[in-house]
Each structure stands twice: as structure tokens, then as C-alpha cells.
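Data deposition worksheet. Section B asks for the primary sequence of the deposited chain exactly as it was used as input, without tags or linkers unless they were present during the calculation. Section C holds the resulting structure in C-alpha cell form. Section D is free text for depositor observations; keep each observation to a single sentence. Incomplete worksheets are returned to the depositor.
Section A, Depositor: J.P.
Section B:
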Amino acid sequence: MYYGYIPWNIYDYWRKDTPEGGFEYVLDETTIRDFGLLVVIGNYDNTKVRVFKLPENILVDSFTVDHMKYKVVKLPNATFFKVVTDKHATVMLMGGAALDTWPSNKTHERWINRAPISMFLMSVEGGYVGKTFIFLATLHTVPSDWPPGGCLRVYALEDSEVSLYDERGKLIKRFKLKANEVKGLIIKGYRIYKLSSTGYIMAALFFDWYPNLKVFPSANGRVAGTRFYIPTTPPGHYYPNATYVFTSTEDTKVIVYDLRLKVKVKEFLVKKGTINPIMLSSDKGDLVIESSKDLIVVHSDWTLGLGIAYIGLRRGETATIFIPSGETYLFSPRKATITIDGIPYTVMPDSYLPLPRGFHRISTNESVVIQIIQYQYPPYRSPHPRYDPLLGIPGTQGFGAFAAVIPSIKDVEVVYKIELKPLGMAEAISSQVMYAIALLIIVVLATILWKLKTRFLKKA
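Section C:
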């Protein structure tokens, strides 16, 4: 079962020049939408699907999808829904004028190349780890040669031979990866692909210029864990308010490595019950994070950012979660007791519980999924003056584009027992040390040349 909610605020503002030589933000009426899209892609042939409206449990649609085929269902804004399948499927929630004309070739004039949305992918086996991934690539329709490392990132947890196929089953690329290696691939956006591997891998779609809300899953296949592979941006590419938020139920030591350069770049302590925002970047585009205790890692621009992301909690699990501005809902297929900051709440089957903004300790006696819908309310503020013009939106922030893969309850419950190989990283050398070494080399070479020259002149 897959749960979710269609945002009510599907529209976008755009910047309009004023006669006085300035500009203002106005509502672009061509972006107003009264629907969102559910996209169901078959992981297997003859997958039976039913879509229900909640909380009434009214059947909205029923259909069958085959392997690598899809069905698009339109649902009205502010609709809670449930998707039931008899086989595991790839279920996506998406919408907004920047991409909701898919699968047609028609696009909005402001987004000729459609909007890229970053996310980690879910495997056919379940969870965020696997050997087969079937997905819709939410990337530019016509790919460019940036961001660095490509738009599809593949992270190897084991030595693997990986193959990428298009929707017709044609092989696009085949390559090998050692454990703890990453491969970036530039692919055409808004097409369906299949990624197959001989070993366990993780996969992400990543566009580095737009900091939409992202929840980073761990290498054990679920959200909370002790190792994370992180696609990130080179220094200077990120928005100034975009940070990674680390939360944990226990004090934990965190070490950040550059995955491609194989060096340690940062070390810090995450204290239990606190929000720990950190700004991270990589010249080569990928990091790996290790911690001594379970972490949850979330990234966004907390002043201007928006987006949709999911967090799953297994039966008996406790987590500390930062809920940003916007709306957040917890869904359960069974009667569940949810304890938030020490206060118990009962959630009935196929019902939902709104979660308040802020930092919360959440426990559950049943497996649940949490949908975070981040957007901002006026007045907007930023500590960075150069971005103040972006804060002139007159109303509640809306979605010009959103997309997320929805985890099923079974995805949340999947457990992978993979023996992760040691990272084998070295200590990073600071820039000051690098300069000192370079200067020393220059001095030594100059001394040798001077001695050789002196000896040559004496002989002459």
C-alpha cells in the first residue's frame, strides 16, 4: 500500500519588470493547476492496481500495468489517497505546470526542458537498496553535460556489473563498479528506464542547482542508518540557505568523506534531541557519511526551498525528525499508536495524522510512512541580502513542479543484511599544508638548479 496527499497550492509566481525599473513577483495564472498526477509503473507483468480516495476509501480507478508500462491518474488538489497493488510497483506523486504535461511532448513555455527534481530511487526488491530499479527520470528532457558526474548517480555497495536499459529494453550503458565507487550517467529526462546490477547498489537522480527537499536514505535500504552516499554540489553551486540537517536519538560521531577523492573532509558530533544543520559540498560531486549511531539526513533550502519527500518508520522504531514549514502527514494501514514528544496518539487504519512543524521525537508500534510537503509562508526572510529579491512573493509559496517516489509499507519493512566494505579513506590534507608542501618542493628544486648551475660555471 502506498499513501499520499496532493498539495493544494499548485501554482507559481514569476518576476515581472515594473515601469520604475524594478520588478515584482506576480502569480502566473498559466501555472495554476487543480490536479496532481499519480504515476504507476509496472515492475512486473499483470500488476493489478486500485486507487482510493481517503478517508472515505472511495475507489477512484482500477487498472492493470505490465512490466515497464505505466498508467497516469489525475487527482484533485488537497486529495488524500491510497494505492493498492498485488505486486510491488513504482508509484510516483508528481505535478505542477513544469512537468504535468508528461507523457505528451507539449511543455509549458517557461519550462521548455521541463523541471528536474532530485530524489533517491526505490528498487524492485523494496526499499532504497537493490539490484533492479525501474523509474521515471525526473530530469531535463534534453540532457546537458552538467551537473558534474551526470544526472543519474549509481552507488555500488558491492562489486557490481550494472546495465541501464531504456523503455524499449535497449541497452544504453554497461559498466563495472567496485564497492564504494560511484558512476554518473547523463540520460534523457522524463523517460522510463531500468537499471540492473549483479550486486547491491543505490541510485539517485540529481540536479545540483535546485535545492528541493531531499531525504537521504541509508545504505541499509531504509531512511535511518549509519552510512549514507550523498550526491552534492561543488562549492558555490548551492543556495546560501541550503543545509543538511542531521538528527539522531543518541549522541553520535559523524565523519564525512569525499567518495571520489577518497579523503576525510569533515568530522563533527550530532547531539541527541538537537537539530544539527551543516553545509557540505564536494569538488567532485559525491560524499559518503558514516556515523556511530543511526542518523536521519535531510537537505533543503530552509528559507526558500520547497518539495515533497517521504520518511518511513518501522514497527517499534523511534526517530527524531525535523518537520519544516508547510504540511506533514503520517499514514498507517493498521491501527497504530504514535507517540510524539511523549504524548500518544491513535491513528486508525487508512487514516492520517497531521504532524506539527518543528523538531519531534516520534515512536510507532506499527510501520508507517510520513509525507513531508515543504513550502513557505510570508513574510519571507533571508540572512543573505543578495537573495532578498527572491523573497518578494506576495502570497503562500506554490509548486511549479514537484515529484517523489512513494515508499510502500512493505518498502519500509524490508531489511537488507549486506556486509558493507570499509571505505578505506585517508585523512584530507588542508590547503595550508598543500601550499607548504608545494612551496617546499619549489625551494628544493630551486636549490638543486642553483647548485647545478654553480657547478657548471666552475667547470667552465
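Section D:
The chain has one domain: 2-428.
Residues 428-435 have pLDDT under 50 and may be disordered.
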